[in-house]
């Protein structure tokens, strides 16, 4: 499901498509949408499959492509090439898939403290590297729970993000109201680490994914993914532009919404 808002005219007006991270939904963009609308842009905030108010259950989403289907369908249906895709956290991988499939429709892609894969390596490398750099499984998970699921790919697990993890790793510099909202609305999410799309080293090509303008937004106070890790992903994709937001935690749209919107509006003006 999605929430589509606003309209725009003029060559500088863009259509922003906002893609949430694991366990989250379109609701997490509530501070960003009205600012972009007020600037005259069109905005679509998406719920990926089994996220937000999407009616699916996590165990009924059988592949990463199925999970990303709401985004892929929205981009396919777009009637212009003015799309600015904005992916947060794990949502960066769905954005990358849409860029590969529809490069001609995307004016720019923004990775906000997001998983940003690169040409020539499988998309799961970003998650694998994050896990390698994290000292222990306990540090990675804190009070998150592994939820057993079974789908067409067999038995697996989804992650149910814990309230302590949200408070200490995700929303530690965000208003208390945003943390409370997240605690009420997050749903279990599947990272699809063993999915064939996630493992395909030939999936992302220089001619498609590599041809789209990329901007990485570094959240400098991110407690979930370090600045070093964020810059490691940037280094894998030469030519990626970088914007920094001081004091932004992982939920950059919650902790620094004005600064984040300023970055998005700047990108819309220049792409």
What is the compact description of this entry?
GO terms for molecular function: methyl indole-3-acetate esterase activity; methyl jasmonate esterase activity; methyl salicylate esterase activity. This protein has helices at 32-38, 64-77, 91-101, 125-133, 137-141, 163-170, 176-185, 196-199, 227-236, 252-255, 257-270, and strands at 2-5, 15-19, 42-46, 83-88, 106-112, 145-151, 154-160, 214-219, 241-245.
Features:
19% strand, globular, Rossmann fold, two-stranded antiparallel sheet, single chain, 271 residues, 9 strands, alpha/beta
Give the helices and strands, then pairings.
Elements: E1 2-5, E2 15-19, H1 32-38, E3 42-46, H2 64-77, E4 83-88, H3 91-101, E5 106-112, H4 125-133, H5 137-141, E6 145-151, E7 154-160, H6 163-170, H7 176-185, H8 196-199, E8 214-219, H9 227-236, E9 241-245, H10 252-255, H11 257-270
Parallel strand pairs: 2-3, 2-4, 4-5, 5-8, 8-9
Antiparallel strand pairs: 1-3, 6-7
Structure write-up:
It is built from eleven helices and nine strands. The chain is an alpha/beta fold and 271 residues long. The radius of gyration is 17 Å and the shape is globular. It has a seven-stranded mixed β-sheet, with helices on both faces. The protein has a single domain (2-270), classed as Alpha/Beta hydrolase fold, catalytic domain (Rossmann fold, 3-Layer(aba) Sandwich), CATH 3.40.50.1820.
Q: Write the CATH architecture name.
A: 3-Layer(aba) Sandwich
Structural class: alpha/beta
What strand line-up does the widest sheet have?
Answer: 1-3-2-4-5-8-9
Distance between the termini: 28 Å
CATH topology: Rossmann fold
Biggest β-sheet: count, sense, barrel?
Answer: 7 strands, mixed
| Relevant CATH superfamily | Alpha/Beta hydrolase fold, catalytic domain
Using the coordinates above, name the CATH class: Alpha Beta
Identify the overall geometry: globular
- Percent of sequence in beta strands: 15-25%
Continuous helix count: 11
| Helical residue percent band | 25-40%
Please give the radius of gyration in angstroms. Answer: 17 Å
Low-confidence stretches: 4-9
SSE sequence, one letter per element = EEHEHEHEHHEEHHHEHEHH
Strand elements, count: 9
Total number of domains: 1
Mean pLDDT: 92
């Amino acid at each position: 499901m999605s929430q589509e808002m606003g309209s725009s005219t003029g060559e500088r007006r863009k259509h922003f498509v906002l893609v949430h991270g694991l366990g989250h939904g379109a609701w997490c963009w509530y501070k960003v949408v009205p600012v972009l609308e007020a600037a005259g842009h069109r905005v679509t905030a998406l719920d990926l499959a089994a996220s937000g108010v999407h009616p699916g259950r996590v165990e009924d989403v059988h592949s990463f492509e199925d999970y990303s289907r709401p985004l892929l369908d929205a981009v396919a249906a777009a009637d212009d090439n003015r799309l600015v895709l904005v992916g947060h956290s794990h949502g960066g991988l769905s954005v990358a898939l849409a860029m590969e499939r529809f490069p001609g429709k995307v004016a720019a892609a923004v990775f906000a403290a997001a998983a940003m894969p690169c040409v020539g390596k499988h998309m799961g490398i970003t998650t694998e590297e994050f896990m390698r750099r994290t000292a222990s499984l306990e540090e990675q998970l804190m009070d998150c729970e592994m939820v057993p699921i079974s789908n067409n790919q067999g038995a697996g697990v989804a992650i149910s993000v814990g309230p302590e993890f949200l408070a200490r790793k995700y929303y530690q510099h965000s208003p208390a109201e945003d943390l409370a909202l997240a605690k009420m609305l997050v749903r279990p999410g599947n990272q699809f680490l063993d999915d064939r799309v996630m493992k395909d080293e030939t999936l992302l090509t220089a001619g498609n994914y590599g041809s789209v303008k990329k901007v990485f937004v570094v959240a400098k106070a991110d407690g979930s993914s370090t600045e070093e890790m964020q810059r490691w992903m940037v280094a894998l994709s030469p030519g990626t532009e970088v914007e920094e937001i001081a004091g932004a935690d992982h939920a950059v749209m919650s902790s620094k919404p004005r600064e984040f919107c300023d970055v998005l509006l700047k990108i819309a003006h220049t792409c």
